[in-house]
Design brief:
Shape: globular
Helix content: 10-25%
Structural class: alpha/beta
Radius of gyration: 22 Å
Largest sheet: 12 strands, mixed
Number of strands: 26
């Protein structure tokens, strides 16, 4: 029997984003992952036969692959896959009208500012709650341009001719253990197709919310910008803090055809019990440009390395990233750039902040083979340590063959000076405010890359981290 929708007073709440409603689920795949789990998910979602087969191949690959050891962290040993639930849903289709969204879900996203942002500046919104999209809407003017924006579960059924062509092609099932896991149990995520020559003037946004304890969220996002098309996509992620672990393992595939441009912006604010293990990669054809703008705050462990394969001549790939690690957190982030055509250009700019006993790691890969010519890469890695107990590591791998390319790499590590903090305190700032000012100054040039609404949110999140970490 489905429980009544709880009153707003029943929300368990601590800090911003750290609140949840009592669970109300019609469908629950239970704990652990077996072939029966896959059949349960496929049955509930009424998957076509090819999707069920895709899932089972993913499960087989996941079971066969060992836990990665080349990822230099022991935190992965703390993941126990039989302690998670892999599918939770109320069984309802995504609502097109905000008024039709169930009250508890509506209140959740109202508090996170989703409807307000949609009204102000967004061209379309997808809001996912646990395993499925609760709300999905694209503005009429964008829809009339032929833009398709919906959740992936809908798209694989309604647009198989586009979806199936690229699904799993940029990131194969066997790419790594966690891409295989996602292939087995994926649910939700965004599907976007931009027709040739269409330039979407306002951003499209998705918001991924985990509400339930001992749960794994596995959205699958596929964005295709056809020839000469342009789009900006933004995603936000939050989850409440539970005593038990939560797992988030998404797969994101981007395809930019000739002359197309995709910007993918992420601001995540996971709680400190979340294992965030994500695979993100784009394929850029001739004269295309793919740009990842990434901010990672929160989580127990984040392992995320957005990549671009520059397949066509003069293709460009960029990763602009900010990571903040507080005590008990490890931000293992970076970028992967694979040059596969002449005259391609890649740019990586990474900044990390380590607070308390937090650890930030940059892990990057740049690959330029010998037979190419005219390729360029710029890599910059800057780390800021707030105190002596915090830690930062840098593992750049730049593999350049031949002598017809230009590459450069810069790295720096600095620490907030006590004299600087003292100076600001003498002028009336608290220690937290002084720390926040120092951190915001460190990342200010990168924050300009974020859309205004997200840059304001980013500053607010950093201020909150500083408040809880000093004094």
């Amino acid at each position: 029997m489905i429980a009544e929708t709880p009153d707003i007073a029943d929300i368990k709440m601590d800090t911003v984003g750290d609140f949840y409603f009592p669970e109300v689920h019609k469908y629950d795949a239970g704990f652990g992952i077996t072939e029966a789990t896959i059949d349960y998910i496929a049955d509930v979602k009424n998957d076509p036969d090819w999707v069920r087969e895709f899932r089972k191949n993913g499960l087989k690959t996941f079971m066969e692959k060992p836990m990665p050891t080349h990822w230099a962290t022991k935190d992965l040993e703390n993941i126990h896959f039989d302690e998670f639930r892999y599918y939770l849903s109320d069984g309802q289709k995504p609502k097109r009208s905000w008024d039709d969204v169930p009250d508890d879900i509506k209140k959740t996203f109202d508090r996170l500012g989703i409807p307000e942002q949609e009204r102000k500046f967004l061209a379309g919104v997808e809001a996912q709650y646990d395993s499925e999209a609760a709300y999905s809407n694209v503005k009429k003017v964008v829809e009339e341009q032929g833009v398709i924006f919906m959740n992936s579960s809908e798209a694989l059924k309604t647009h198989p001719e586009i979806f199936r062509k690229w699904f799993g092609k940029v990131i194969p099932t066997g790419d790594n253990k966690f891409s295989a896991l996602n292939s087995a149990v994926f649910s939700g995520g965004s599907f976007i197709y931009i027709p040739p020559g269409v330039k979407v003037k306002h951003p499209l946004q998705a918001y991924f919310r985990i509400n339930s304890e001992q749960f794994g969220q596995f959205e699958r996002t596929l964005i295709i910008a056809d020839e000469g098309a342009e789009v900006m996509y933004m995603e936000g992620c939050t989850a409440p803090k539970f005593e038990t672990a939560t797992l988030h393992s998404a797969v994101v595939e981007l395809v930019a055809m000739k002359g197309a441009k995709i910007q993918y912006v992420t601001v995540q604010n996971w709680s400190s019990n979340v294992f965030n293990l994500v695979t993100k990669r784009g394929l850029a054809h001739e004269d295309a440009h793919i740009k990842w703008i990434d901010c990672n705050i929160g989580s127990r462990l984040t392992m995320k390395y957005p990549g671009v394969i520059m397949k066509g001549k003069r293709a460009r790939g960029e990763v602009i990233s900010i990571a903040l690690a507080n005590s008990g957190q490890h931000q293992d982030t970076g970028a992967k750039m694979v040059h596969a055509a002449d005259d391609t250009t890649s740019n990586i700019v990474s900044k990390s902040i380590s607070i308390g006993k937090g650890r930030a790691t940059y892990r990057g890969l740049v690959h330029i083979p010998k037979h190419l010519k005219g390729c360029k890469n710029n890599t910059e890695c800057d780390a800021l340590l707030i105190n002596s107990s915090s830690r930062t590591d840098t593992y750049p791998a730049i593999n350049v063959r031949g002598n017809q390319h230009a590459t450069q790499h810069e790295a720096s590590v600095s620490q907030v000076s006590a004299e600087q903090i003292f100076y600001m305190q003498q002028r009336g700032l608290s220690e937290a405010e002084a720390m926040s000012l120092s951190v915001n100054g460190f990342i200010n040039d990168l924050v300009r890359e974020f859309p205004m609404e997200y840059s304001v949110e980013l500053k607010r999140l950093i201020d909150l981290e500083m408040e809880g970490s000093v004094g």
